[in-house]
C-alpha cells in the first residue's frame, strides 16, 4: 500500500449515489466425506487484527483508480505503451518481429540494442557512454535498479572473456540440472549426440507389451523438451545432429529416414561470429532427386533469412 500511495495510484472520491461498490456475490461450497466432522476454516492477517483499506475521517469515500494496477489484465499493455512511448522519444525503433527488442544506430555507426522482458531489461552496444546516457534517461522516468553487468538471463549464464574479447552464453548449470532430473548425471559423455552410422526406424520400437508399458512410464517428452530448449538457446550442435554480416548455411541428406525415405535438412545463421538461429528437421515430403532436395532445403533457409532480415 505504501508504494500505491507513493505513486498516486488512487484518489479518494465520493461514491456515486445508488451504486454498489461490489456488484458480485461469492458463494463458497465445501464438500466433506460422509461421517466426518465439518472442519472450521479461519483466515486472519499476521498481526491478528482486522485490516481495512480505510482512511480515518473518510470512511464514506471510495478509491478512484488513476493508474493501472499490477495484476489487472490491461496492466501489461499499459506498461508496454508507456515504455514504448519513451523509447520512441529516445529515437529507438522496435524490430518488426520482436516488439520487445529496440535498436538504435548512432551517427558513428555504433549501435545500442535493448531487450525488454516484462519489467527487466538487457542493454548491449559498442558505445559505453551512450549506454550509460540511456540508463540515466530511463532512471529519470522509471524507478529502476541498476544490477550492473548481466550474469544470467532465462536460465543462461552470460560469460565474458575480456582478454580474448569474447562474450558467450552458457547453459552448463541448466544442463547439469536436466541430467540430474533424468538420472543421467553419472552417464558417460560422448563427442557427438548420435553416431552418423546409426539408422533408427520403427523396428527399434519396443517389441513386447511389457517393454511398451515400461517405456510409457519414461518421461520421454519432458526429456526431449529439455533438450530442445538447450538446442534453441545455445547448443546448435545437438540440433544439427567477427563482423556484423548475417550469414547462412544449409545442407540436406538424401532419404536417410529408413521408414519414410524422407530427408532431413538443416540451416544455421551466424551474426557477429556467433550462431543466432538454427534448425534441423525431417521433411514432410519425399524428393525425387538430390537437386530437388537442395532446392527444398534452400527454400526453408530463405524463409528464415527473410524473417531474420527484419530483425537486423
TrEMBL record:
<feature type="domain" description="Reverse transcriptase Ty1/copia-type">
    <location>
        <begin position="53"/>
        <end position="194"/>
    </location>
</feature>
<dbReference type="InterPro" id="IPR013103">
    <property type="entry name" value="RVT_2"/>
</dbReference>
<dbReference type="Pfam" id="PF07727">
    <property type="entry name" value="RVT_2"/>
</dbReference>
<dbReference type="InterPro" id="IPR043502">
    <property type="entry name" value="DNA/RNA_pol_sf"/>
</dbReference>
<protein>
    <recommendedName>
        <fullName>Reverse transcriptase Ty1/copia-type domain-containing protein</fullName>
    </recommendedName>
</protein>
Amino acid at each position: 500500500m505504501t508504494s500505491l500511495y507513493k505513486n498516486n495510484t488512487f484518489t479518494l472520491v465520493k461514491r456515486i449515489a445508488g451504486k454498489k461498490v461490489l456488484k458480485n456475490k461469492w458463494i463458497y461450497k465445501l464438500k466433506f466425506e460422509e461421517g466426518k466432522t465439518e472442519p472450521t476454516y479461519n483466515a486472519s492477517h499476521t498481526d491478528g487484527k482486522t485490516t481495512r483499506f480505510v482512511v480515518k475521517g473518510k470512511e464514506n469515500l471510495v478509491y478512484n483508480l488513476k493508474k493501472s494496477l499490477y495484476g489487472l489484465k490491461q496492466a501489461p499493455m499499459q506498461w508496454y505503451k508507456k515504455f514504448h512511448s519513451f523509447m520512441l522519444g529516445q529515437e529507438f525503433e522496435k524490430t518488426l518481429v520482436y516488439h520487445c527488442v529496440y535498436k538504435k544506430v548512432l551517427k558513428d555507426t555504433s549501435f545500442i540494442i535493448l531487450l525488454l522482458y516484462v519489467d527487466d531489461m538487457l542493454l548491449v552496444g559498442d558505445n559505453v557512454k551512450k549506454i550509460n546516457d540511456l540508463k540515466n534517461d530511463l532512471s529519470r522516468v522509471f524507478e529502476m535498479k541498476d544490477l550492473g553487468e548481466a550474469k544470467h538471463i532465462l536460465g543462461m549464464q552470460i560469460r565474458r572473456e575480456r582478454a580474448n574479447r569474447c562474450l558467450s552464453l552458457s547453459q552448463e548449470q541448466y544442463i547439469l540440472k536436466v541430467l540430474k532430473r533424468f538420472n543421467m548425471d553419472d552417464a558417460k559423455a560422448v563427442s557427438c549426440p548420435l553416431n552418423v552410422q546409426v539408422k533408427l526406424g520403427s523396428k527399434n520400437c519396443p517389441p513386447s507389451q511389457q517393454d511398451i508399458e515400461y517405456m510409457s512410464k519414461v518421461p520421454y517428452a519432458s526429456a526431449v523438451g529439455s533438450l530442445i530448449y538447450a538446442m534453441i538457446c545455445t547448443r546448435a550442435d545437438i540440433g544439427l545432429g567477427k563482423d556484423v554480416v548475417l550469414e547462412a548455411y544449409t545442407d540436406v541428406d538424401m532419404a536417410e529416414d529408413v521408414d519414410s525415405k524422407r530427408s532431413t535438412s538443416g540451416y544455421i545463421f551466424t551474426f557477429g561470429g556467433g550462431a543466432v538461429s538454427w534448425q534441423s528437421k525431417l521433411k514432410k515430403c519425399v524428393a525425387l532427386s538430390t537437386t530437388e532436395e537442395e532446392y527444398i532445403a534452400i527454400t526453408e533457409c530463405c524463409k528464415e533469412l527473410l524473417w531474420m532480415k527484419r530483425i537486423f
